[in-house]
Design a protein that fits this description.
Elements: H1 6-10, H2 21-37, H3 42-45, E1 47-49, E2 53-55, H4 62-69, H5 78-81, H6 87-100, E3 103-110, E4 116-123, H7 124-139, E5 146-148, E6 154-156, H8 163-167, H9 175-189, H10 195-216, H11 222-234, H12 250-276
Antiparallel strand pairs: 1-2, 3-4, 5-6
Helix pairs in contact: 2-7, 6-7, 9-10, 10-12
Length: 278
């Protein structure tokens, strides 16, 4: 846990609840400039040489590439455009940069006029890992809880205490289970996820439970089994009829249902795996 300084402990820090978007983007720009200077974007975007001028990388026109992939103008160059970034713009740029970062491994020093290293070999996996670490250190200060995933997607951070369940592998070799859980998790946590997206994520997890039901029915009494599915079946998640209970705070209760079902699925899968290993 990071050290909390006096005003943070006292509760008088003006940024007690995190930094604004503009301040967070400002931190990102400084981090990006440092990583660029260290060669992490030379393979993709090129670099400046005191003799040869700008030497192109694999993406000679970055603004064009952003327009073709993100479908937005005026995002590049970062230093000149970042002050106008919306939250969507900021996260789009982070995901774009993740796709193009690579760690410099070997190169040739160009000593003339302190030009610096001309990097020649790079490692993308190591570069992405370093970029993700630095970006998440920046996002840690944002007033809204987001993080960059290992796949390079900006996602909502898990509720406190539930982080391990997202880091753990799904304990199953059944693609019907693994793919559905992973898809539901991404749908629920993705930036910009709507109430309907989250309701569908809960519905998908309930379907996984239904699929597992015959394998674990012996673990429950009939009442337990009924209660487990009552939540999704009668609270406007899986069905749509006049008997559904819908007068509840969807944002709050969908969050509870999502974590409840996800945790239950992990427990049941481990029980199935344990019993199968006997």
């Amino acid at each position: 846990m990071a050290h909390r300084y006096y005003s943070q402990r006292k509760g008088t820090n003006p940024n007690q609840n995190g930094l604004s978007l503009s301040d967070t983007v400002g931190l990102f720009v400084r981090m990006f400039e440092q990583m660029y200077a260290d060669g992490y974007f030379h393979e993709a975007f090129g670099f400046e040489c005191v003799d040869a001028g700008h030497i192109d990388g694999k993406v000679p026109d970055v603004a064009l590439e952003m327009l073709l992939t993100i479908r937005k103008k005026d995002l590049w160059p970062v230093q000149a455009s970042a002050k106008e970034y919306s939250e969507d713009d900021f996260f789009d740029v982070l995901e774009f940069l993740f796709q193009h970062v690579s760690k410099p491994i070997e190169g040739t020093p160009h000593n003339w006029n302190d030009c610096g290293m001309h990097w020649e070999t790079f490692n993308q996996v190591q570069g992405q890992a370093a970029f993700r670490t630095k970006i998440n250190a920046v996002l840690e200060h944002y007033e809204k809880p987001f993080e960059l995933s290992t796949a390079g997607e900006v996602l909502h951070k898990p509720e406190a205490g539930f982080e391990p369940i997202f880091d753990a592998d799904v304990p199953s070799k059944d693609n019907n289970v693994v793919d559905r859980i992973n898809a539901a998790t991404i749908r629920y946590r993705r930036h910009g996820a709507t109430i309907d997206d989250r309701r569908q994520a809960v519905r998908d997890l309930a379907d996984v439970l239904e699929y597992l039901r015959p394998k674990v029915q012996a673990l429950f009494t009939s009442a337990d089994d009924k209660d487990l599915f009552n939540i999704a079946n009668n609270f406007g998640v899986r069905h749509h009829n006049d008997k559904q209970k819908t007068a509840y705070d969807a944002s709050l209760w969908l969050s509870w249902m999502f974590y409840f079902y996800l945790s239950t699925i992990h427990v049941l899968l481990r029980k199935i795996d344990h019993d199968g290993a006997k």
